Amino acid sequence: MKKTLVSALTTALVVGAASTTFAASNPFADVPAGHWAYDSINQLIDDNVIEGYGDNTFRGERTITRYEAAQMIAKAMAKKPTGEDKAQIDKLAAEFADELNNLGVRVSDLERNADKVKWTGEARYRYWSYRDAKKNADGSTQKTNRDQLQLRLFPTAEINEHWKVKARFTATNMMKNDNAGNASLSFAYADGVYGNCEVKVGKQPFYSLNDNGLILDDFFSGINVTAGKDLKVVLEAGRWDLDNRANSYVARPASGDTASYQGIQLNYQKGKIAGGAGFRHFTTDTFKTARYSKSANDSKADIWSLGGTYTFDKNWALQGAYAENSEADYYKKSGNVEVDYKGANKANAGSWGAFLGYRHIGSNVSLMPTFDTTRAAANVKGWDLGTSYIPMKNVLTTLGYFHGKQLDQHNDKTQTLYARVSYFF
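RESULT FIELD:
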């Protein structure tokens, strides 16, 4: 009996010791929430050293395993970072030395054999209701309603440790008329990252970051070179199709609506402060109208813009921007001031945010602004407010309302109601 008990206890101790040893080196054990490694990994993601889960994001809503951490670190080590980034990598490598040693070959094999193309997507429904001061024959307010269903697919293909190809396929359905619309390739470009320098070549997003989208939020064909860390210099050149604009007055010259484009931005972000300045030059016969210049023969646009954001704390932020087109004679100035409260994070159910802004949108300077409620480049000024809410993970709901006046219709009143539901996958 005693021998049996001793034998059982001995076996239990051996198994327990073995289990403890396995747990300590188990690559699939979670890195505890609050571990310092998360801060280091997030910093390296911001510096484009670690690529997170392939879509340049780090899923901070959940913990990761030591295996996942080791995989990220192994990829980062292959980039041979320098300076502070190297110090962070060395610290992480020491923490996850066992996982890197034991899984290093396996990680390399996975990198070679893993699916090179990763897909994400969004299905979105949007609704606009425009109401103007003009009256119908029966005295009722003129209004136009529009609802749209859209599917967006985002493939990202890894070429090597520096280069990726990114694209977006978009299919649109206008629901009011059950119009199937069209499917198109919104953008496709090569994206190369070398330390603090990034190069994009092809059809790519066209966003005026320095003024928070006051001038542009579209796509263009060309090249973008961004260099720097806290202070970044952005150089762009290419061609832009103005036919995507919402300007009803834009001429349609025989030569087409495409403009040649060159631009430069300086963007700074550190701590609570972000800001920038930019200059953009466009040339196209599309500008040769009496609503652009007195001569109706000016084909150039020279647009200067400034913008900044100050984040007071985790809840409040204030942003502002100003832009002017020195070549235009009319509707050549734009400005925006906005207060933001909290923010909706699609990964966190129950999160929400709200904003209140005052916008002055001159159509000859804000060529394709980012605001959903002001109709792109529609010559308006007024108050814009909205809210966003995440009812469940990866589902975004948004409501917005604009109340203001038209700049080109004797200050006639205009209103826009906007709603959106997005499903991310």
